[in-house]
Amino acid sequence: MSSSITGNPKSLFGALSDETYRAERHASASNPGPKNLALMQLNPNSDVPPPTDHGVVEPFWYSFDLTHRRVQEGGWTHQVTTRELPASKDIAGVNMRLTKGSFRELHWHLADEWAIMLSGKARVTVFTPDGAMFIDDVSEGDLWLFPAGAPHSIQALGEEGCEFLLVFNQGNFSEESTLLLSDWLKHTPPEILQRNFGLPIESIAKLPKGEPLYIFSSQEPEKSLDEEVAEVARHAAKPKMSYTFKASTMKPTKEGEAGNVKVVDSRNFPASQKIASAIVTVKPGCMREMHWHPNGSEWQYWLKGKGRMTVFPGQEAARTMDFNANDVGFVSNMAGHYIENTGDEDLVFLEMFVALEFQEISLNRWLRALPEQAARAHTNLTAAEIRKIPEGDRPLLR
């Protein structure tokens, strides 16, 4: 890829018209040598960056489509962690699919697990330290939160199975190092298993051997959700809270002609005490306004459409990148940014934070809230021009 033209871009070409300047700049950025055309076409703003880009900004783009996919009988998984995106030290993501009836084996993690269903349906269970068993069915667009240390399972329902995104509040998380039931049993002496379970050696011999189950094929549940809820209630306490959230039917937190935002955090999903999120839909030709977040770095997952984002971390540095579905984005703590829908369909993406609540600061709202003289002094705009800046809580703009 070509390098960015830095410094004062127009000074490189003298006093040229904007049209001539753009043509000269593209000529200077020409790259006759080896190139990955497919990648350049996906990210034109990285190949020939806008003249406002400057300096060195740590990488903030990666794609699940570049990662190794672990395929097993019953589904697959792949992940983007700090190993693939070094800047993201607080959050990692896992994309997983299960075929009809298949299980993600009973297991638990060192980190909290936040998830959104991308397609299909699943039945989830989670067992809490106070002895409660929670069980529910989730559909496309719904969420769940499994606290660190709480054992849980996921089973696909229906002919199409399911696919989901998992988000963990631990950047160096690895889906390969979860604590699996079958792995533990395999590494426990048989006589200890006999004493623990109160079972004869013939029964212990039936337990899984060899490689851990991890993802495996099975039959769909024989009972309905209500029947299974009644069944587990005979052996376990009733949960004190819900560990799923029906975001698919949630009314948007903010909505307008430019799109909508659904904010899900501890205030409306009490189980999610350590992970806050926003599900953002931006209409074609519209943008997520210039803003930043005062309480954490932003980890993004792009679900649909395409767009571009410029990240400004300060110190005269800025970089612009293009994003498509199944990409991951990252905005470091406090860095200013915007997101523009550059396609002809709705752009949908997730904003994820290791935080109790979702917080943001809008550049527009800040400028409009200042005393008029202060705003004029800092921008060289007239009072009339400042009054044209959008006011109010408008995170999405036409």
Commentary on this structure:
The strands form 3 sheets. Strands 2, 3, 4, 5, 6, 7, 8, 9, 10, 11 and 12 form an 11-stranded antiparallel sheet that branches. A 7-stranded antiparallel sheet has the order 1-20-17-22-15-14-13, with no helix packed on it. Strands 16, 18, 19, 21, 23 and 24 form a 6-stranded antiparallel sheet that branches. The protein is elongated, with a radius of gyration of 25 Å. It has 398 residues and is of the alpha+beta class. The longest helix is centred in the N-terminal third of the chain and has 11 residues, at 18-28. Strand 18 (306-314) and strand 19 (317-324) form a beta hairpin. 17% of the residues lie in helices and 36% in strands. Residues 1-16 have low confidence and may be disordered. The chain has 3 domains: 9-42, no CATH class; 65-245, Jelly Rolls (Sandwich); 250-397, Jelly Rolls (Sandwich). It is built from 10 helices and 24 strands.
Which terms would index this structure?
alpha+beta, 17% helix, 7-stranded antiparallel β-sheet, 11-stranded antiparallel β-sheet, Jelly Rolls, 398 residues, 10 helices
